[in-house]
Known about the structure:
CATH superfamily of the largest domain: Response regulator
Order of helices and strands: EHEHEHEHEHEEEEHEHHEE
Shape: elongated
Radius of gyration: 19 Å
Strand content: 15-25%
Helix content: 40-55%
Largest sheet: 5 strands, parallel
Distance between the termini: 38 Å
Structural class: alpha/beta
CATH architecture of the largest domain: 3-Layer(aba) Sandwich
Amino acid sequence: MASKAKILLVEDDTNLGFVIADQLKSEGYQVVLCSNGQEGHIRFTEDNYHLCIFDVMMPKKDGFTLAREIRKINTETPILFLTAKSMTEDKVAGFNAGGDDYLTKPFSFDELSVRVKALLKRVNIHEVTEDKVIQLGEYVFDTENFTLKHPEFEKTLTKKEAMVLKLLCQFKNQVLPRETILTAVWGQDDYFAGRSMDVFITKLRKYLSHDNSISIANIHGIGFKLEVN
């Protein structure tokens, strides 16, 4: 049996979003539906997707901005833009933002289906499964129950601590931008959220101090890197 592709759909028109999601589900796809760009960014950092479908004109964060942010952390996942505009310069802006294809509203579901299938041919479809339990050096991190266990240490994390650690694990040995953590965990990127995040990073460093092969490096001016030797 073929594995289902997982699609992130971000559309601020609630009715249209439900209709598109239902159509895609009826074709066998898994669909996560968001109503604005900020929520879309959070959901993208929480999971793995085979395809993104973004409306362009959205509150809180437009589709082009969302695509540019996602391209900083993922260059592979295809992005399809939905827009009411058909101006050539908007299409150019969409491709410059990291988009792979463009669909102008109103469109037929047959056309959407063809575009989705064409984009999914570019990616290797396998079942996207998320590890609920992560082995991190000598630690075992249960992402569902928020527990971090080591032979000499055990801690039940707060939800935010667990979310930050999970993001760091997803980008293990890679630089994770500050704004990505802030948007995904705090829902905003401002001074106070930044100070709060620094406190959480300090706490996580303390929790992980029982294994010398693990460290959270501060990449000045950019973000953090969970280094596991």
